[in-house]
Design a protein that fits this description.
It contains nine helices and ten strands. By secondary structure, it is an alpha/beta fold. Bound molecules: zinc ion (2 copies).
Amino acid sequence: MRFSSLHTHSVFCDGTDHIETLCRTAWEKGLSAVGFSSHAPIGRKTGFKSDWHLPDGRLEAYLDEVRSARRRWEGKIPVYLGLEVDYMAGLMGPADRDYRDMGLDYLIGSVHYLIPPKGAPFTVDGSRGETLAGIREGFDGDGGAYMNAYWDAVLGMTAEGGFDILGHADIVKKNSRGDLFSESGETWLRRGGETARAAARAGVVVEVNTGGLNRKSMGETCPSGALLRLFREAGVPAVVTSDAHRAEDLDGNYQAARRVLLDSGYTETVFLEGKKDGPGTAVWKAERL
Ligand SMILES: [Zn+2]
Ligand SMILES: [Zn+2]
């Protein structure tokens, strides 16, 4: 079977390789397409400082660079233009109007930040120390409340729509070593199921993200096999992605992702074919696993 990667970071945000290198490597590896999904700028919209997002002033250069790579690689490998957009309720999200006029092929909607009831916003997938401090200050040390706030954010994003791929759906598990909340408990599975059904209603695709496996920061795909089963039951199509931050990871752990999909009852994955009209309207083609 063939694979693509639509979740790719370059030197424009927190990746280590240039767009051209990533295109060449994707082609050499025999991927059927490569799509770029730089972390969309957050500074102007949120006032937050970040060293891992595309700076606001570099957005146009990024869009131009991917468009010119698409022209250079035409006939060899399709190059798609996307963004990975953070959802932060009331501040920014994939449904923002400005993404509609950028000529994007697709958007990945991801929750990386939580805005707690008190204290400062913090990331769920940064260091464990940052997560622990955020839970202590923002959620009175309640890991369950933290986990629920994450799923609430994903559901908020899905309700607003405007994106095509649900990014690393259960990334909140990254800094939990079973001590912050249970990943096999009733609440986890109930919230995962709720999210899967919301994704189905929104018409989005769930990615099977191997980034944590590639970076050895997680022992499994995002989402896990247990949650993928719920997405399959809800009828949500799945796409395999590497969340690559360097060229060599562009197809990292793809056989593991295939195995997880099969074990979860999936018989097909999908491939991007184009779009009808801007973000949230991607056209997919299903192929047997
Ligand atoms: Zn992400
Ligand atoms: Zn990413």
